[in-house]
Specification:
Blueprint: E1 2-5, E2 9-12, E3 17-26, E4 40-42, H1 52-70, E5 80-84, H2 91-97, E6 104-107, H3 113-126, E7 133-139, H4 141-148, E8 164-165, E9 168-175, E10 182-187, H5 202-221, E11 230-233, H6 237-250, E12 259-261, H7 262-265, E13 279-280, H8 282-298, E14 304-312, H9 316-320, E15 327-335, E16 348-349
Parallel strand pairs: 3-4, 5-6, 5-7, 8-13, 11-12, 11-14
Antiparallel strand pairs: 1-2, 1-16, 2-10, 3-9, 7-9, 10-15, 14-15
Helix pairs in contact: 1-2, 5-6
Length: about 350
């Protein structure tokens, strides 16, 4: 059963297993540094559909179907799917997954959705509410630009702080099989708002949230940055990553050696200068996690990893009304070992109020 560690973190008593995973990308992602890590690259940005929004739904279907195939599973083997995207009312998820017949929890955490969905899926497995769950997310450059900024036909000038929304996605199947990678703990983020209003500077808007969540994980668990091989943020890009490191340094946390950012890993800013400050979007951290990070944990090349997906929680309405951009970041502790002995002992079981197991503390 999940148990509370400090105020913000849940330890997972019987750490769930990442059973299988799959990563999907498009042409630009296939030209980047991680091109060989994707399970599937589609050179047509429409993915064979007639709109970009339908293409994004296709990304989710491709990701989850390939994850199911790799895990030798059918949709009927999955108890719940936790999925989200950037579009209004999570249409990419609901339209993309409707044919599978799996009970769906639709999520909106903006670009933090991969960590949010993975957190909830893992909690369901550890609490015995399900045997297998799927965590899925996606994004598409063209659909995101049309919704949040300008239609592509407008040909607006991109600022140096702007980031390129990844056309891609990822799917993770979580279960209780005893095999790495394991999900050891999750830290749920709070909404942080430092007054950033520039929709082309999301890295600055999200960095404070990443800083807050990372600080809380280390405070709750008593662990140190040097215990981890990698501390990877979702899509802070060049600007946000610099701000994050500075904010943590002021709090006495130095993660320079361990820190990587999915937005900086997926594109090459020198050979792909149009991406400006790096990648972004739900599909950024989703595809990098499923294509690059999880395989390395499974292979034993990475032992201990903190995955912190970050999201800018603005909407077209809030931006047009001159509102600030709140940020959020959710953390997932991934490990090659089920019992590394590094987490504090159980403090309090999480239980329902309907006659379930009593808490103890």
């Amino acid at each position: 059963m999940p148990y509370r560690i400090g105020k913000y973190t849940l330890g997972l008593e019987m750490p769930p297993t990442v059973v299988s995973y799959a990563s999907v990308g498009s042409k630009k992602e296939g030209e980047g540094p991680l091109k060989d890590d994707f399970d599937y690259i589609e050179m047509d940005s429409y993915f064979g559909e007639d709109t970009w929004e339908k293409a994004e739904s296709r990304i989710q279907r491709e990701a989850i179907n390939r994850a199911l195939e790799k895990g030798e599973l059918d949709p009927s083997d999955i108890d719940y799917v936790f999925a989200g995207d950037l579009l209004n009312q999570c249409t990419s998820s609901s339209y993309g997954l409707r044919e599978l017949g799996i009970p769906l929890f639709g999520l909106y955490g903006a670009c933090s959705t991969m960590a949010e969905s993975l957190s909830l899926a893992s909690i369901f497995i550890d609490s015995r509410a399900a045997e297998r769950c799927a965590a899925v997310t996606s994004s598409h450059f063209c659909s995101a630009e049309r919704q949040f900024r300008f239609p592509l036909e407008y040909a607006g000038q991109r600022t140096p702080t702007s980031q390129w929304t990844v056309t891609g996605g990822g799917a993770v199947i979580i279960g209780s099989r005893k095999k790495a990678p394991y999900v050891r703990a999750v830290t749920t983020g709070t909404v942080e708002d430092y007054g950033i209003k520039d929709v082309n500077n999301m890295g600055a808007a999200m960095a404070p949230a990443a800083s807050a969540t990372i600080q809380r994980f280390f405070k709750d668990t008593g662990m140190k940055p040097d215990q981890f091989d990698m501390i990877v943020t979702g899509d802070l890009g060049y600007v946000g990553s610099g701000i994050l490191l500075e904010l943590l340094e002021k709090q006495g946390l130095d993660i320079h050696r361990q820190h990587k950012d999915c937005g900086l890993m997926i594109f090459d800013r020198e050979s792909q200068p149009e991406v400006q400050a790096g990648g972004s979007g739900c599909g950024c951290s989703g595809s990098v996690l499923c294509g690059h990070i999880l395989p390395k944990i499974q292979q034993g090349k990475l032992k201990e990893v903190l995955f912190i997906a970050t999201g800018a929680l603005m909407s077209t309405t809030s931006v047009q009304q001159g509102g600030t951009i709140p940020g959020i970041a959710h953390l997932v502790y991934l490990s090659s070992e089920a019992e590394s002995g590094k987490l504090p002992k159980q403090e309090q079981e999480i239980h329902c109020s309907c006659g379930g197991r009593k808490g103890k503390g």
